[in-house]
Amino acid sequence: MFNENFLLKSPLACQLYDAVKDLPVIDFHNHLTVSDLVSDRQFSNIAELWVMSDPYKHRSMRICGVPEKFITGDAAPREKFNIWAATLPKLMGNPLYHWSKLELKRIFAIEEALTPETADMIWDKCNKLLQEKSFSALNLLKRFNVIYSAPCAALNDDVTLFDKIPGNVPSLRGDDILLPTAAFTQKLAEKSNLPVNDMATFMQAVIARLDAFHAVGCRIADHSLDNGFVYRNCSDEQAEKLFAQCRSNDAALTADEKMLLASAILKKLAGEYSRRNWMLLLHIGAQRFTSSRLRAAAGPAGGFAAIGHTCDTASLAMLLNEVESSPAGLPRTVLFTLNPADHAAFSVLSGSFPGDGVKGKVQLGPAWWWCDHIFGMRDGFESAAAFGVLSQFIGMTTDSRSILSFVRHEYFRRVFCAWLAEKAANDEMPSDLEILIPLAKAVCFENASNYLGGIK
Fold this sequence. Notes:
- There is one protein chain.
- With about 450 residues, this protein is α/β, with parallel strands linked by helices.
- It is built from 18 helices and nine strands.
- The chain has helices at about 10-20, 35-40, 45-50, 55-65, 75-85, 95-110, 120-130, 135-145, 180-190, 200-215, 235-250, 255-275, 290-300, 315-325, 345-350, 375-385, 410-425, 435-450; strands at about 25-30, 145-155, 170-175, 220-225, 280-285, 285, 305, 330-335, 360-365.
- The strands form two sheets. A seven-stranded parallel β-sheet has the order 1-2-3-4-5-8-9, with helices on both faces.
- The longest helix is centred in the middle third of the chain and has 21 residues, at about 255-275.
- It is globular.
- The model has no long low-confidence stretch (mean pLDDT about 95).
């Protein structure tokens, strides 16, 4: 069932993949559960590891008519696994079909496709292996040759836990900082041991927490600029007033007032990231509010978000320019777009804010979320090459909640090598391994390593 030349349709593609397949994995943004890593969790069964916490699978099962009871409801793990086994054969053309094939092969040495007929065998074999210590959470990461993983952590989280999980450092998820509620600022005051009374003391407390993150290895901050976000110039006086109102009753702020306050705080934060030489990841364009029914049933990350409209490029350029013009300057910035129509615009924007002597200071990020498939990846490669500089592209990150999803680095490398070989076959690139192999290695590993300071 599994062909080792999967997706590699020419001898050149195979040669390129052979050159990159054993490179280490750097995953600079994911949503792994930190408690699973700290405890080095031993999963009870394959449903716990593979199905029950994966919104990608949940979404596909809903589309196929599966009742919510068997997705996020109270059905038994074996029932949920059986439903997934019945759903997967219907997903040809969806990346889940490919990912699942690779996950079963790479981790469990299972060649057979998951179907209702093979479900018993696969359930038994996987569960037996999962009882072995070599299949614990941290050992699963080792199986993928992961040398750097950056799970998201919120500003008020206990990041001292990362001292217990070598090879993993926090990536700051900063969304709740931009609209600081009373509950958030109270917790911030407790975590920082500093009073929070106004914008100045708020930023002092935030800086203290950024220092705590930096001390345990954090070098990345991530902000989600969801569908409809528009950067607004906000004076210090306006920001102070809106900060007080948000702490008092954040629901009373209008949408425009929320954008003003978020813009003011994001600009200040970007300066702090630059002072620390952190990367800033901007995830742009998610329409997170769709079905209120599913949000209530499955939570805010339940797999029902959608692609928003294209980015307001003038607004994004204003944000980058304002930060670049500030005393600390612009940090290295990676622009993720959920709407593939923005691939070209973001690639072009990478040339608008170059750093003096800095490679790829602003750049298009990896294909993300609903773009994380062959079509989306190849579209990103085309845009990075045609509108930017492909050789500076920092490659792949999973942005996933599932440990098994780290197989997507292999998937990315196969897709990229196949694409390079096609370009060479069409005389759009030289058919020369001495030229193409260094490019493949740069995109699949070296650029991310260098962007993060030389991880080896």
